[in-house]
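Dear colleague,

Thank you for sharing your sequence with our group. We've completed the structure prediction you requested, and as agreed, I am returning the results in plain text so they can be pasted directly into your records. Please verify that the sequence below matches your submission; if there's any discrepancy, let me know and we will rerun it promptly.
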Amino acid sequence: MEALDKKQQQTPSTPLVHFAMDLPIHVRLDDIRRAVAYHQVVVICGETGSGKTTQLPKLCLDMNRGSERLIGHTQPRRIAAKTVAARIAEELGEEPGRLVGYQVRHTDMTSSATRIKIMTDGILLAELQHDRMLERYNTLIIDEAHERSLNIDFILGYLKHLLPQRPDLKLIITSATIDPVRFSGHFDNAPIIEVSGRSYPVEVRYRSVAAMSEDDNAHLEEDDENFLAILNAIREVSRDGRGDILIFMEGEREIHELSRYLKRQRITDTDILPLYSRLNSTEQGLIFKPHKRRHIVLATNVAETSLTIPGIHYVIDPGYARISRYNRRSKVQQLPIEEIAQAAADQRKGRCGRNAPGICIRLYTEENFQSRSAFTEPEILRTNLASVILQMKALALGDIHDFPFIDLPDMRYVNDGLRLLNELGAIDHNEELTATGRRLARLPVDPGLGRALLAAADMECLREILIIVSALSIQEPRERPLDAQEQADEAHSRFQDERSDFLTLLKLWEFYDHQARAPGAGKLRKLCRRNYLSHARMREWREVRDQLLELSAGLKMKLNAEPADYKRIHSALITGLLSHIACRTGDREYTGARGVKLNIFPGSGQFRKLPKWIVCAELVETSKLYARHVAGIEAQWVLRPAAHLLEREDPPRLREGLHDQHPRHDRVSGEVPLEVRLVDRHVLDSDDPLPGFPLDDPVHEQERVPVRQQLHDFPDPEHVTPPLPQVSRPPAGRPAGRAPAASAGASPS
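Please find the predicted structure tokens below.
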């Protein structure tokens, strides 16, 4: 221990570190110090509120780690990275950006004096492009690892590969009390140190929806029944005291509906406050301000781990959440409402009991809780993998099937990712990265949007596509408050383009950009407020656009000197959105890739126009499959971008005469109209079996099929979690399953 103490002796530049004595982690600090000193990997698990996030970086600093290289600390979300950096800096008596810095997308608040760097896991992944050995760091803390996001799983797999080459690099994995043995086993049985969480007990009460509402009205509608159960739960905990209440809801729509319902009840001395990722910072800030009246906070699962709301005494948990899930058949990322896992329910319970004894009411039975899965399925098992595969190939990490993931992804999802990359021209028929793929991997956007950027440079419309792609990469900047929807719609109508939602974004940008050039930030903020625009998101839009502009210059992509016309702009978009093309085949119904039936989203400017052919930025499945951000196009514009997919030998069955037998086949010319051939290629090349072609068994289909044999299948690009759609709630008291597929086929923070 004498040598260890000497090694850890603080340098003159190391600040004096004080630890929070009232946090549960304090009693285990010496154990953690020894484990970090003698092991390369340590797993720290503990419930919410134990102090893992704020005290571990300080402990590493106290051990003189970070003196020559950085202490890196990852967070799953930007808002968490900023707040954690501010909190640690405050505890060290510093201002954020010096000793403790943070970096999130488009914001770098670090300096040469920084020793603790808080960042999103996406930032750490981006650094691998130019620092594959992570030489800048001698310590990495991967926080909230239990969330098992795609980024976290990829980072842990990469570190498994890297650590033998970097024996000086220390890795600390922090997790809630959710399967820490998995992390330990992945890193050769790394030691696990458990830290107790809350200082106060939490009583769990199980109350089924039916039991909570049956005495009031036997003929309630489903939503009323659920809301009445929540109201009765509020009444129940109110008898125990007047503390703040946190209620978990599935999404933005459900929050607004419950908010209206509760406000009609006129609960005395109480404020009803929403909390979801799309909420602007001013409204979010109301939750954290000191208050005298009781707060009832209605939140999505963003409040499970990302944000800690002070003063919560009671939690009401209906037991549902919206889970992003990739539908392999329709190739659409869905957001169905499902029952949460036991671990997620325990996370929700842990949001109370931090300052006083708490109560958690679960609106389902204990038997239902025991029947639920123990953990939420990792994202890597339920998402499109195109982005992961692209980055792995760019980093020369070998075959994805051999990569040390904690959970191996489904081979079929891997194949879908490969098909998408081939569609985008990022890999060739041998699954090798192309020149386009290497350039695409350097763009920090969805692969489809990145491909549109590359095409835009060739089509002399890069200036416009940069604006459109950056807009599609952030949360919707237009706000539509519940109490001012008509006013917001009227304000936004001035930007509406008759033919294209993409051009609507351009008009909005031009308005904001012109105003932003005028002096006075306060005036700009007021202008945004008058026009129902989020000032923070408009500013983020500019930051994303500026970053993409800088990256484009590094790729030798030149801005067009003259404004681009409609055809050029939408042809470039089509290049990255080939699977998001559809043709109207009914009164309001469209047929898209693989024959899926879809409709234009009601909020689109094209909802009433109903163009014959459309391209859209994303497909969102709720009660129907909806196209969002829509533009009318000409069928001929598809031929050039899709040449590598359309110009190929037809499948044998087509050569046997299906083309000649088409109902719109012209017996004189021998041709079928172009629009029919394009759509039918999607239909005939769907997962539905043609005569003589058996459908693969979805259960036993485990063998990898080379992508060159799958070019006839048109997969949809992976997209970031889409803006919160409206989803039908599962019937009260019954388990929620996956959302049903849309007819004949088949989703933002």
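Summary note from our side: Residues 443-569 form one domain.

Kind regards,
the structure core
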